[in-house]
Specification:
321 residues; alpha/beta; Rossmann fold; six-stranded mixed β-sheet; 12 helices; globular
Length: 321
């Protein structure tokens, strides 16, 4: 909701004022490993903007709120664990972000009254990145998801973005969810349902249930590549393994999207899926697609005018190093 009484800087740049020095922040913790600065700084350099994209390693929203008061603030990319907390920093959120329940991008626009105030707007481009990565891997995925379910592994903000991408973005009628924490899984489902999501979302709690349900045609894995240690983690791993090992009753391509790409996108589960015949997509594809949408919002330049291929090459080189 827009707060008209909020004090906002009058010198925040608008279209036509973008040639001045501006700053975009990556707000999250830990973020030392992030390769997104290589992407966005390449974009800014190649389109001739004297901007910088820098890390703000913090999980305290007040740290970003303080920087948002600066005249050179142009926006922020919000990553874990701040995607929900950052909702308190913005004046309004887009429809997609409202339904997903979190933001990963903040950008500024002039308030329509013409009084010189600026509005801070929150949105979510993660779901766009997931949708486009899957469409690139299988242009017919919407048709396939009409007849076969999808599976999301994980919880929290990325989980909700993945479910939104699969349902609202790609038309999946049913999505299964695997999570080591039953309460987090149920909370994610409840939040999406309360925001108006109509499609079926089922939390898979046991291996027996996994054995009894239809094999998914798409899997989005949004968990770290860490070996399980607790009973709940072992259960979640066993459920996941059971579901991706189930032989399909169709010949359509099966896609395994591994969101984790550091230190390598070929995680334990990605390797297992590949051995079982799944087509593996790495999380850098998602990052590239969602990041270019962020660049469009910050620079207010059309997508086709941005050097996305150069930026993509920069982050892959950084990751390889």
């Amino acid at each position: 909701m827009i707060d008209e009484s909020r004090d906002s800087p009058s010198l925040t740049p608008t279209k036509g004022d973008v040639a001045q020095q501006r700053t975009v922040y990556l707000f999250g913790q830990p973020i030392a490993h992030s390769v997104s600065p290589y992407f966005h700084n390449t974009i800014f350099q190649k389109v001739g903007l004297p901007w910088r994209y820098i890390r703000l390693d913090s999980k305290d929203p007040e740290d970003l709120a303080w920087l948002m008061r600066r005249n050179d603030f142009m926006g922020a990319a919000v990553t874990m664990p701040n995607k929900v907390q950052a909702l308190s920093l913005v004046d309004s959120i887009t429809t997609e972000a409202q339904k997903i329940g979190c933001i990963n991008t903040i950008y500024v626009r002039p308030e329509l009254s013409g009084k010189g105030k600026q509005l801070y707007i929150g949105t979510n481009t993660d779901w766009i990145g997931i949708q486009r990565a899957l469409l690139n891997a299988d242009p017919e995925i919407r048709t396939h998801l009409q007849d076969h379910p999808a599976l999301v592994i994980g919880g929290g903000a990325t989980c909700r973005s993945a479910i939104y991408a699969l349902t609202e973005g790609l038309g999946a009628k049913a999505v299964y969810l695997i999570n080591r924490d039953p309460e987090e899984a149920k909370s994610s489902i409840m939040g999406l349902k309360q925001a108006g999501l109509q499609q079926e979302i089922h939390y898979v709690e046991t291996v027996d249930t996994a054995q009894a349900i239809a094999s998914p045609i798409v899997v989005v894995s949004a968990v770290p590549d860490i070996a399980p240690t607790t009973d709940l983690e072992h259960t979640a791993r066993n459920i996941t393994t059971t579901m991706i090992q189930t032989k399909p009753d169709h010949t359509s391509p099966r896609l395994f999207l591994e969101m984790c790409y550091d230190p390598t996108p070929m995680t334990y589960m990605a390797n297992l899926a590949q051995d079982l015949g799944w087509k593996v997509i790495d999380g850098l594809d998602v990052m590239e697609h969602q990041a270019i949408e962020q660049a469009v919002l910050w620079t207010e330049k059309p997508l086709q005018s941005l050097p996305s291929e150069l930026a993509n090459s920069a982050i892959r080189q950084a990751l390889h190093r």
